[in-house]
Structure formats: C-alpha cells, structure tokens
TrEMBL record:
Family to which the UniProt record says this protein belongs: Belongs to the complex I subunit 3 family.
The enzyme's E.C. designation: 7.1.1.-
Reactions performed catalytically: a quinone + NADH + 5 H(+)(in) = a quinol + NAD(+) + 4 H(+)(out)
Lineage of producing organism: Bacteria, Pseudomonadati, Bacteroidota, Flavobacteriia, Flavobacteriales
Keyword terms: Cell membrane, Membrane, NAD, Quinone, Translocase, Transmembrane, Transmembrane helix, Transport
GO MF terms held by the record: NADH dehydrogenase (quinone) (non-electrogenic) activity; NADH dehydrogenase (ubiquinone) activity; quinone binding
InterPro entries the record matches: NAD(P)H_OxRDtase_bac/plastid, NADH_UbQ/plastoQ_OxRdtase_su3, NDAH_ubi_oxred_su3_sf
Listed GO CC annotations: NADH dehydrogenase complex; plasma membrane
Name this polypeptide is given: NADH-quinone oxidoreductase subunit A
Residues making up the signal peptide according to the UniProt record: none
Length: 123
C-alpha cells in the first residue's frame, strides 16, 4: 500500500499518541498502588479525617450536568471567535456573513435551551 508523503507525519503522531496511551495505562496498572481485598478500615473513605456520612452514590440533579454541558458548549463558541477577531479585516464581507451565521445558530440554540427551561434552577 503506497501512502502519500503527506500522511506519514499524521501516522507518526497517531502512533506516538497511541503509544503514550498504552504506556500510561500499563504503567498505572503495574506501578500504581495495589488495593487489598476486603472491607478493612484502611480501605474506607475519609474526608479530612471525618468519617463518611451517607452513600457516595447519591445522585446529582440533572441540572448540574446540563449546566456543565451548556457551559462547555457556549464556552467553545467563544474560542471560535478568536481567529475571526484576529483576522477580521482579511475575511471581508464573506467572513462577516459566516460569523453572523455561526452566531445566529448559537442564538437559536440558546433560545431553545432557554424556552425548554434548562436555565431555570427552580424547576
């Protein structure tokens, strides 16, 4: 199979990334601390020296996760504005219309989320 020369650096980087993941997982497994089986006091959970109260598996409200996902979504939107802000003169009217379309799509998403009540903590 003949690969174009453009793909060789991509394959090298993918191999290095995969190798790093494999070495990290194996290193953590073999070099990390080994837990003993059983229900001893040493293996129990402690928080700042105070015994644990209740179950650690208490479910969180879905609002917490929804707010986190929405924050990441709209935060990433801001990251995409940076290249436009740096080069807005070079993009001209075509770039302005592209960014305007991008913003319009996110405003539609924002109003959808707002109307669905995802931003209301009282519900």
């Amino acid at each position: 199979m003949n690969l174009p020369e453009n793909y060789i650096p991509i394959l090298i980087q993918a191999g290095v990334g995969l190798g790093f993941v494999i070495v990290s997982l194996l290193g953590a497994h073999f070099l990390g601390p080994q837990q003993k089986k059983g229900n001893s006091v040493k293996n129990s959970s402690w928080e700042c020296g105070i015994p644990v109260e209740g179950n650690a598996r208490t479910p969180f409200s879905i609002k917490y996760f929804l707010t986190a996902v929405l924050f990441v979504l709209f935060d990433i939107e801001i990251v995409f504005f940076y290249p436009y802000a740096v080069n807005f003169r070079e993009f001209g009217m075509e770039g302005f219309l592209a960014v305007l379309t991008f913003v319009a799509i996110f405003f539609v998403a924002f109003f959808y989320v707002w109307k669905r009540g995802a931003l209301d903590w009282d519900k």
